[in-house]
Amino acid sequence: QVISDFDMTLSRFGCNGRRCPTSHNILDTSRVISEDGKKKLKDLLHYYYPIEIDPHRTLEEKRPLMVEWWTKAHELLVQQKIHKGDIAQIVRESEAMLRDGFKEFFDQLHKNNVPLFIFSAGIGDILEEIIRQANVFYSNVNVVSNYMDFNDDGVLTHFRGPLIHTYNKNNTVLQGTGYFQQLSTRTNIILLGDSMGDLTMADGVPRVENILKIGFLNDKVEERRGKYLDSYDIVLESDETLDVVNGILRYILTE
């Protein structure tokens, strides 16, 4: 099975020298957010993002701060009275891009009945829409993420729990989903991530025999290289493609 992060892992980090948006960014900067809301969301990003990627802080220090960030951001979004019907258009108008080679990646997995589990601290409704608009939302794709709940009028009222942030992508938020139990025969895993928090995504898998961890090092490469090389089996620096992953899949699936 393949277990993957979404933002900046399956989606691109940058294009033509510009940063590509994450699923949160897509919503935060869209026309459905007021100017005041945009400013507040940007302030949160500027305060918390450096903490998220600070190699000198411990996970224990970071976790409560990430909960704080996500909670505040979600509360701000709820205040914006976002309409469910606007999501497809918001995604269409955004600069969201999946990595080059995404079609081969999704197609190969689907054709060979390999489950793809996307574990994301982003916004589930947005990232599902990105995959849907790319025409690769196949039956083997399963997503666990932060989903919005709408009232009968289609207006956002809250986010469904449990809250998933960068550093709790593990068993704690999968309790009761039973997803990995159903796949207990899938003991070989390819894990794709772009942060230290993604390394725990396979923690709920029973009886792991082989796990290949591939890390996309997108940002502050020099500063973070050592940590990534210690933690991931393969580290891809500033690579906006899925070429390496596709090559490995081709090799395994045609054995």
UniProtKB/TrEMBL annotation:
| Keyword Disulfide bond in annotation | no
Q: Which UniProt keywords apply?
A: Cytoplasm, Hydrolase, Magnesium, Metal-binding, Nucleotide metabolism, Nucleotide-binding
Q: What is this protein called?
A: 5'-nucleotidase
Family recorded in the similarity comment: Belongs to the pyrimidine 5'-nucleotidase family.
Organism (species): Illadopsis cleaveri (blackcap illadopsis)
Q: Name one GO biological process term.
A: nucleotide metabolic process
Per UniProt, subunit arrangement is:
Monomer.
Q: Which gene encodes it?
A: Nt5c3b
Could you tell me which Pfam families the record lists for this protein? UMPH-1
